User: Fold this.
Amino acid sequence: MEDKKIKEFVKKRYSKIVNNEEDSAECSCCGNTKENSIIKQAQAAGYTMEEIKSIPLEAVFGLGCGNPTALAEINPGDVVLDLGSGGGIDVFLAANKVGEEGKVIGVDMTPEMIETAIKNAKEGGYTNVEFKQGEIENLPLEDNSIDVIISNCVINLTPNKLKAYNEAYRVLKSNGRILVSDIVTEGDIPSEIRKNFQAWAGCVAGALDKDEYINTIKIAGFKDVEVVSEHNFTEPNMDKRLIGKIISQEIKAIKKCECGEPIESIDETGKDSGCGCGSESAKELLGNDTNDDSGCGCGDIDYPDISLVKNPDNPSFFANKEFIQNLEEYAHSLGILNVGYTLITPDLLIHDKFIQYPFTIVLTMEMNEDIINTPPGEDAKDLNDTAYVRLGILTTKISDYLRKNGFATEIAHPYGGLVKFSQLGQKASLGWIGQSGLLISPELGPRQKISAIFVSIANLPIKESNEHSWITDYCEKCGKCIKACPEKALIENETCCGEKETEFVQELCIGCSEGCTYCIEGCPFDQKEYTHIKNRFDKMNAKLRAKQ
Ligand code: B12
Ligand SMILES: C[S@@+](CC[C@H](N)C(=O)[O-])C[C@H]1O[C@@H](n2cnc3c(N)ncnc32)[C@H](O)[C@@H]1O
Ligand code: SF4
Ligand code: SF4
Assistant:
């Protein structure tokens, strides 16, 4: 589903709710059902009758899944921001807490919601509230200007949750905190529900798995991320397949430096430069900080371990076949396409960092159609970054699985520059590096992101041979990626002995800074099946040999 279409659908749905046009029988959560009155729905979300009576009744739509102001420890004088403020329920509750010296700002993308909230504020005589139309992924607010952020059942609706949390981080002051009520999932959600717009607008399809949700907040840079409360979300009309899998959570987190000290300065891009201790936050690592000339954040840097599971004190060194099989099944169930095994050697390290265990598990994940079909630019970069975050999260999950089973691990984040992933993939026999510089695998061609886990398992099933080396000869005759590159970052040179040699001018490549994928799209291995290409190439070579 395209991000823009999702947003339009969500916007339409919430404008219909304001105008009482929504067929609420189809709503799955975050919506008022025919059976439940709005007040009952609000009480079920956690509001007391006293709280409901203290604000304009027209602000209550029964759309929340928690009561964030009750847990956000809002103080008089605070500047509070409500992400996706709807009719203003939480803005008005917070306004009663911050008093006249404080202020509460509500941001919502649906114009009808904003109009209703402004009307409610006027009629309720509120002077310390402000409502702004805008998107939570692009907040119409200054950096470093908010003390407390609250949000109630909104972030699950955005297709780009990392962007929303990055924005929340940007506008928060140092030591500012966020308290979010939101819907998350646990276990598999049927894919037809995931793809359904109605289910997205009803808060289910867009909801992230609970571990991924927490990791997303951490990657945005937040510290002390904590689930304050959680309960199973059910309602009379809920699809039976979802029962027990939809969870309403209240999560709090703080903006502070890794070392626990307040952040001292924010630069012009809104990125914190820490407290001066030199510690790098996950956000800094994924942000625009870069040591290469490509203008993106990839390479050169090591990533912090954001795993929720500690390494075992006395790790195991041997795994039986059944465990390896279960591990691979688990990885595939998460969306990992290939799992390969190899030993890391010094030539594959980009940096001189000590890695305790050389035994390496290499993981690949597909770069989906959306990334490939979106032309270079901001949207493509977002999609590309999201794929890195997703693979980072999956890698962490697989590492957690290993740790829980007694093995010690260390993660090489896909966006990081700890090791050379394409070469590692080749060494693990997952494919071969083509002239584009990318690993080409039978299953995905060049269209993959790669990550790795170093593990204490000394008897990994490492393959001795690599059957894909013929790709070098094929590339010599192809050269389509060179022609496909609009930036002339791939150039064909002739060596002194008349042979062709490809040069990669990385300064010209907009692959990371703009999410360019033309060299992937242009590659025959992206369009045709590996065996088909191999068979034709073998036939052609046989013919040539016969002629000689
Ligand atoms: C920094 C970086 C970039 C930089 C610079 C790349 C570079 N150093 O040359 C820029 C921004 C330009 C870039 C662009 C892209 N990148 Co990049 N990038 C990385 C990163 C983070 C580090 C690579 C690195 O610095 N290596 C260190 C140097 C010293 O190694 P090296 O021996 O010189 O070898 C590298 C290159 O020089 C190149 N190379 C070496 N020899 C030759 C020869 C030729 C002819 C060519 C064309 C390339 C080439 O290949 C190696 C891998 O980058 C890796 C992740 C990782 N840790 O591996 C991803 C990674 C290599 N990138 C990846 C991808 C997908 C891309 C892009 C398609 C962008 C995108 N949409 O994601 C483009 C493709 C450009 C291309 N044709 O190679 C994937 C490749 C997956 C695969 N199938 O192999 C990786 C592995 C990320 C991942 N986790 O999946 N990238
Ligand atoms: C489930 S309702 C919750 C409203 C309110 N928080 C409450 O508890 O009553 C979701 C609200 O978020 C808004 N919204 C959804 N996605 C948004 C986005 N990306 N940016 C800004 N607002 C968004 C919708 O317009 C809607 O008003
Ligand atoms: S990612 Fe784009 S700019 Fe970079 S080498 Fe490939 S086609 Fe060229
Ligand atoms: S486009 Fe052709 S030359 Fe380039 S990597 Fe793919 S097969 Fe090799």
Observations:
- The chain has 20 helices and 15 strands.
